[in-house]
Amino acid sequence: MIKYIFFATALCIVSPALADRPILLVQSTTSTQNSGLYDYLLPIASVALDLDIRVVAVGTGQALSNAERCDGDLLITHARAREEAFVEAGFGAARYDLMYNDFVLIGPASDPAGAKTATSIAEALARIAVTNAIFVSRGDDSGTHVKELSLWDGIADVAAASGHWYRETGSGMGATLNIAIGMGGYTLTDRATWLAFENTGTHEILHEGDPALFNQYGIIPVSAAHCPTVNSEAAEALTAWLLSSGQAHIAAYQLGGAQLFFPNTE
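The chain above was modelled as a monomer; its predicted structure follows.
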């Protein structure tokens, strides 16, 4: 049985039965935790590798920052450019593609901006901006926030619109979804979190399938040269497992008959 320990800014998942085994601390994006993937996957990995695997689930920006300060042995995040920069700076040993899914635009079924009939995510966002329909952003330097800002580039000056039709929560995906639903607004979310989310109200997916919404996850063992106390042996073991036999377990994880993550090792 998985025990949940809450911190001010993170959720650490700990298996009490593994307390006497080597500890591996994973700094991770929240979407993999919110989707339930870790509840399914980590008990399997823990037994296979004889490890006590603990996860701190935060936004990608915070996860990278934590790992840079040597608070963690392994990263699972979804902002490729920042991950590659992390490795290039010497903080990570290497970066590997792990799995992917996609982002989706959700909004009220009434769709006041007409986003559902747009032919691209760029057109959908342009319609939201032109109509001043409420858009709720995580605003937290997470992988989802980084993706969202890249999508707005060349479409609207969201910094200038902040506090008007563009609202920033500075919170995780679950809180942001709740706020967007409460305000009748639009937001961007990864599909896995949306499928696992229960408080959907009258909101639904209004735009999906655009290649620009591709969502790649990477895995990075923290560099022992930068962080001498890192558990490199455990980090390398979990990385190797996730990139080999763990891929079938990632593919097998479903909610409501839908596959949430698609393995794609390099």
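The CA atoms of residues 252 and 259 lie 7 Å apart.
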